[in-house]
Amino acid sequence: MNDLPLAAELRAHPELSDRPVVVASGPGPRAEIVAISPEAAGRGVRRPGSVAHARAVCPELCVRTTSPAVESAARAALLDAALSCTPRAVLMPPCAGVYAAEAAVLLDASGTAALFRSEAGFAAALCARARALGLPGNVAVASSRSVAHLAARKLRPEGPDAVHVLPTGAEMAFLAPLPIDLLDPDDALAEALTRFGVRRVGQLLALPRRGLGLRLGPRALELIARIRGEATEPPLPVPRGARLVEAVDLEAPVDRLEPLAFALQGLLSRLRARLAARHLACGDLAVTLVLEGGGRDARRIGVAAPTLDLRVLVRLLRHALEARPPAAPVEGVALETEGRAVREGQLDLFRPAGPAPSVLSRTLAELESLCGRGRVGAPRIADDPREDAFELGPFQPAPRTAPRRAAGGAARTPAVRALRPPVRAQVRVSRNRPEAIRSAVANGSVVHVAGPWRTTGGWWSRDERFAYDCFDVETSDGTVARLRFDHLRKTWHIDAVYD
Amino acid sequence: MPPAGPTRTEPAEKQAPAKQGREAAAQRAEGERRQAPARPALKALLRDLGTQVRQGGSPSQPPAPCATAIPAVDELLGGGFPRGGLSEIAGPFSSGRTSLALALLARTTSTEGIAAVIDGADAFDPASAASAGVDLDRVLWARAPRLREALRCAERVLEAHGFALVLLDLAGAGPRIAPATWPRLSRAAAATGTALVVLSAQRSTGTAAALALETAPARARFTGTPAVLEELEIRVSLVRHRAAPGARGIRVRLPASRAA
């Protein structure tokens, strides 16, 4: 990709794709222009130049400022496009000089013949997937990394020239007529080569190595090694983890939810595209809002089940923002997530009737966004002697392997309606038994009482120990409740009502 | 009787379609003969599979209502709570509404499929539900922090399709709900064929509910030495039934659940 600043801005703001756009090095009319869109170039805007000069040439020009966060996200997206084609890929470090606006990724295409049939098919697929992520670029396939990199620099980003496959043995013939500038030599070496009249790669290759090394030093020999693909190249790594980040700087601080939600939707759609390219789904979201005045609002939004459903993710974010709006106008937003594998569930003929697994996952994610983390799931009875203990586990209804039978047993109790938190009660006691109750739930004299049943536990820890007596009481107002006396705190509470 | 005459032989072109028709009929008969012993086997298989598989039925038949397995209540309701509609159980504390809801939940999870409990009151007790026979693995419990979230959760669950029963427990929040909420939820339930049952302290669904019960405490029975709470006797009044208008009431001794 030859023009990273422009591509990154157009990727973040696709609505600018048909307009004349320039990317400046900073704010203000004196900022230098770093990149020019084809539409702006067609209107007469040129580099080098300042923003003021460009506006004079093209009054309707749209000026964007370079954003490290946006460019970093674009580079990461380029790597995602590469990883969608092969598991071994690495981003090349940023260049300086003429190729400072370049972004390149190296891929190992070996072993992909079964997927893409040919190297040309592989290159075309990579080019198309990168374009789908908003990153137009060139793809070159060669027998060594350095040669492939050099060949890609020569290509044009549009049309059939965007992809080229160098047959093995034809690399030198392809590179020979190309200018030395493609090698991006440092200034001193470039000046020396120019002084010697060496302007083409073929001319450089024709020079004797020993003499070249003596006159121009090891840097010239490194250039030769790069051209010939003789440099030592360690194997490309398989990236570990799938942490994806998308960020955007807003044109003006936003203090209302709707425009902020619009910006978040754009971020989510780009994040979703990158996850889809790597066959991953969105896990928990880490949202960072850059506030006016330098503050930051960082929050974590749990996603109950990995999903790529944009509607669900947008809803999750909106609920989170509505529940706790940012304290100040927002100047920038960053979204980060850990891509998680989507496990396709095979439908089972004997599975209980219910929503499709993908729909259920989406619904669980939405419910958790509404209720909060850890408040949605399948209820479980906790291994805890306390009456009000419970747990929530993942909701995964499984087919029943044996007919369900009613549990046997002797004790039978009516259904209970829990009170969370327990309601404080004032109790008049007579002969160690409640005689009258006053509370928000039950009031009056105690008509019937059963108990007490003593429950204790957690004696090994000062914070966890508990001891209380439970009574089942019926009060004169008709309420039948479970009354509890806490021996440690000497308080009475009603923690459940029989209903 | 017509005179016998020379036999006319039809041309070959006219003989071919007739011959093909006879062959096709013979093939059909052969196919039916082969399928005949398979049909009882198919019926036996469907019987063994029980409620997990249904043979296709007429789409015009209304779905069977959700029963509570309490005979008196099911008889009062005309079979149970209607699917694809909104129902309400309203009553104060100790009036048996939770017991009715858990009985409905137990019946649904043991026979039909999965259910959801949208707990706007945070009152669902898993131990009590398990004692009532509820299959907890088939219950989705959403502990909504506020009324607005509870209503949204109900909408999301209904949109998902596939839940046989959705219990929406609103405690005493009924009068604070906008009147337009109930028709919207009723339509969502109708679109998915889900039985949506609302638990509330006072009636609030109005005419949007296809069925509404009001419960009131009658008597609590403590038995044994030492005394234990054995059962609740409640009064159940059918105050609204779209298919069978006419108020009527019964007294029910709630089937006490077994301890887990």
What does the secondary structure layout of this molecule look like, with pairings?
The complex is a heterodimer of chains A (499) and B (260).
Chain A: H1 4-12, E1 21-24, E2 33-36, H2 38-42, H3 51-57, E3 62-65, H4 68-83, E4 89-91, E5 105-107, H5 113-116, H6 119-132, E6 139-141, H7 145-154, E7 163-165, H8 171-175, H9 187-195, H10 201-206, H11 209-216, H12 218-228, E8 243-254, H13 257-277, E9 280-291, E10 296-301, H14 310-323, E11 330-341, H15 357-371, E12 376-380, E13 391-393, E14 412-413, E15 416-430, E16 433-439, E17 443-457, E18 466-475, E19 480-486, E20 491-498
Parallel strand pairs in A: 1-3, 6-7
Antiparallel strand pairs in A: 1-2, 4-5, 8-11, 9-10, 9-11, 12-13, 15-16, 15-20, 16-17, 17-18, 18-19, 19-20
Helix pairs in contact in A: 1-4, 11-12, 13-14, 14-15
Chain B: H1 12-35, H2 38-49, H3 71-77, E1 85-90, H4 97-111, E2 115-119, H5 126-131, E3 139-143, H6 147-160, E4 165-169, H7 181-192, E5 195-200, E6 211-223, E7 228-241, E8 248-253, E9 257-258
Parallel strand pairs in B: 1-5, 1-6, 2-3, 2-4, 4-5
Antiparallel strand pairs in B: 6-7, 7-8
Q: If you had to describe this structure to a student in words, what would you say it looks like?
A:
The complex is a heterodimer of chains A (499) and B (260). Chain A is of the alpha+beta class. Chain A is 31% helix and 28% strand. Chain A has helices at 4-12, 38-42, 51-57, 68-83, 113-116, 119-132, 145-154, 171-175, 187-195, 201-206, 209-216, 218-228, 257-277, 310-323, 357-371, and strands at residues 21-24, 33-36, 62-65, 89-91, 105-107, 139-141, 163-165, 243-254, 280-291, 296-301, 330-341, 376-380, 391-393, 412-413, 416-430, 433-439, 443-457, 466-475, 480-486, 491-498. In chain A, β6 (139-141), α7 (145-154) and β7 (163-165) form a beta-alpha-beta unit. Chain A starts with a helix and ends with a strand. Mean pLDDT of chain A is 84; it is low at 406-412. With 260 residues, chain B is α/β, with parallel strands linked by helices. Chain B is 35% helix and 24% strand. Chain B has helices at residues 12-35, 38-49, 71-77, 97-111, 126-131, 147-160, 181-192; strands at 85-90, 115-119, 139-143, 165-169, 195-200, 211-223, 228-241, 248-253, 257-258. Chain B has an 8-stranded mixed β-sheet, with helices on both faces. In chain B, α6 packs parallel to α7. The longest helix of chain B is centred in the N-terminal third of the chain and has 24 residues, at 12-35. Chain B is globular, with a radius of gyration of 28 Å. Chain B starts with 11 loop residues before the first helix and ends with a strand. The chains are: A alpha+beta (499), B alpha/beta (260). Chains A and B meet through α15, β12, β14, β15 and β17 of A and α4, α5, β3, α6 and β6 of B. β12 of chain A pairs antiparallel with β3 of chain B.
